[in-house]
Amino acid sequence: MESLAIDRIIFGELCEAVGDEFAFELVDTFIEETPGILAEMRAALATADADSYRRAAHSLKANGKTFGALEFADLVRAAELGGFSGDSGRDVAAVDAIEESYEAAAAALKALPRG
Amino acid sequence: MADSGSLLLVVDDNKVNRLLLARSVETQGHRVELAENGKVALDMLRAKPFDLVLLDIEMPEMDGFQVLEVMKADAQLCDVAVIVTSAVEGLQSVVRCIELGAEDYLGKPVNTVLLRARIGSALAKKQLRDQQRAMVRRFATSEVADDMQQSGFALGGRHVRATVMFSDIRGFTSLVESQTPDETIELLNNYYALMFDAIIGHGGVVNQMIGDGLMAVFGAPLPLAESSAAAVRAALEMIEMIELLSVDRVAQGWPTLRIGIGIATGEMVAGYTGTQHRATYTCIGDTVNRAARLEAFTKDVERWVLVDGAAHDELGDEFAVTALGEHMLKGKSEPIRVFAVDS
Q: A12 to chain B nearest CA, in Å?
């Protein structure tokens, strides 16, 4: 069954704009870079660095929209605009949800037929 | 149409965004370099000339707002066009970017068709600005050209103390009659090239050219230390150049050239006059009239360079000067002190 983590129309538009080969190069870069940015979000949570937390979330927002990972984009947007809630358990759960959504999006992107 | 070989700088802390923007730019036929934050971007902008910057806002080290602030305050960078590409939400950040000098603002993810159009438009505008600047620099020093550019050539005047120079070729009318039109134009082109170099080289601005005559000002629109001495130095260099040009002409069987130069220092009103469509930078006032009359008076006293009393009093000992006494010049109600600069 096809994953709903990626909007195929949006990803198709990306491929049309930059070419399939380059679109998948971007996918590879996204998959290489994102775990590091998520780790930055967790580190920012641990040190109560609200600015770094917001900036990391912001950085991922456009990536999510670029690839059609809309749920992921919505979650990082909520983290960017909402910042820390003051409840550390809730904030950790929010980053967990972002990470889970990212894993689903990455798996869906990897599963897309190349070439 | 914009130059297809422009050099663009993409500034974004996110690698996917950097690569995506770079690809879009390259497919338009432009060259591109990448920076991962504002600090790196400024270093790159200072190291080589870029035509356009695609700038992210949210970045570590130095954000896009700070980059725009620094660029706006830097005379070398303030003309580089910037298109902000950002996912920052809210109208406030768009307004702030435009107020800080950004040419345009595109939300991320950036639509490639829109990006192509905005890049084309920004580069076309930059090309026009470059052409305008190059044109102004043919008449003035780069500092004055920058000042004119920054002031936006706004109409309006102000009182300044400066030095005005008038110069023309002696016996030009009979020269013209003895030459073909092409020869006359070539002579004028050579003459103006040499005179412009001398004037601009000493900090002056050429305001007007009428036939064989020209008017230059030293000390406006930007103040110039020792404006009288700068004008006299320029005058002496102009004479040296004319003598060299004469040697060439005599070798080709043409008569020698002579010029007359009048210099006066004092208060004047300086600024852009004209309409919103056509304007010129000029100076108006008694000082200007005095310089014009002194230039005409060089024929009567058979001297190359005459200066008025105010200019003479500022010269110091650098130049050999002969006092010619007080003279009532044409159109003046009172006599003025006249001095000849020995060349």
A: 14
Yes or no, beta carbons of A26 and B16 under 8 Å apart: yes
DSSP A72-111: HHHHHHHHHHH---S-HHHHHHHHHHHHHHHHHHHHHHHH
pLDDT at B90 over 90: no
Looking up tokens 């080289």 gives B201
Q: Do you find a cis peptide bond into B221, omega within 30 degrees of 0?
A: yes
> Does pLDDT of B19 surpass 50?
yes
The residues pairing with B254 across neighbouring beta strands, listed in sequence order, are: none
Lowest mean pLDDT, pick from B50-59, B103-112, B256-265, B276-285: B276-285
3-state secondary structure of B85: strand
Partners of B112 on chain A (C-beta within 8 Å) are 17-18
- What lies within 8 Å, CB to CB, of B280 at 6+ separation is B207, B208, B272, B273, B274
The SS3 call for residue B166 is: strand
Q: In what order do the strands lie in the sheet with B31-35?
A: B31-35, B7-11, B52-55, B81-86, B104-107
- The 10s digit of each residue's pLDDT in A48-95 is 999 999 999 999 999 999 999 999 999 999 999 998 888 889 999 999
* Separation of alpha carbons B38 and B99, rounded Å: 18
Query: Which of the two residues, B314 and B175, has the higher pLDDT score?
Result: B314
| B17–chain A Cβ distance below 8 A for any pair | yes
Q: What would the pLDDT profile of B132-187 be if each residue is shown by its tens digit?
A: 777 776 666 666 667 666 666 556 677 889 999 999 998 888 788 888 888 888 88
Strands B104-107, B81-86: pairing kind = parallel
Question: H or E stretch including B10?
Answer: strand B7-11
Do A37 and A83 meet the contact criterion of CB atoms below 8 Å apart? no
Residue B332, SS3?
Answer: coil
Tokens of B206: 């050429």
pTM of the model: 0.63
Read off the DSSP letter of residue B257. -
Which residues pair with residue B284 across a beta bridge?
B269
Taking any CB pair shorter than 8 Å as contact, residues of chain A touching chain B are 17-18, 22, 25-26, 29-30, 33, 52, 55, 58-63, 65-66, 81
Helix or strand run (H / E) with residue B284: strand B279-284
Query: Residue B89's closest chain A neighbor by CA?
Result: A81
Choose, out of B11, B12, B16, the residue to mutate when testing the contact with A (most A CBs < 10 Å).
Answer: B16
